[in-house]
Amino acid sequence: MAFEALDELLDERLELPVAGKLYTVPAPSAEIGLRTQALINAAAVAADGGKADEQVLGDAAERDLYREVLGSAHDEMVADAVPWPALKHAAITAMVWIAQDKTAAERYWNAAGDPNRLAPNRAARRNRSGTASSTPSRGSTSGTSTRPAPTLAGRNKGRKRR
Questions:
Q1: Is the predicted pLDDT of residue 8 greater than 80, yes or no?
Q2: 17 CB-near residues (< 8 Å, 6+ apart)
Q3: Where are the beta strands (DSSP E) in 80-146?
């Protein structure tokens, strides 16, 4: 068994519908992909309160990242006078695709970038895990005591004050 040509196995492009037109975002080069992943990782660290790699964030700010991640679709969108919010959403969707995968990019796109729309609602979570039960679960039967913990006053009864 021989390896098949990778370009025949992978269909690596995004097709994004904007204002009635389908824009094709080609797969990024390895350099752009690696830089995008580094940028997203640095941004995630910064968002979590950690120390972000300023070199990575500085390099990304110097380059036209949206143009790079959208490839030929960027110039096409600009020529078609696509509104800024749509171009930005397309670029961030491409970044999600590069850093994660098409499924994550599709979820981001369809949620219009709104994190609240990305998380499933309570009813959807219930339906996914089966029917919700209104019967409370039984308490633990591990043999642990349910008596209340002693209060500070009770623990300090026999001690002398200093």
A1: no
A2: 23
A3: none
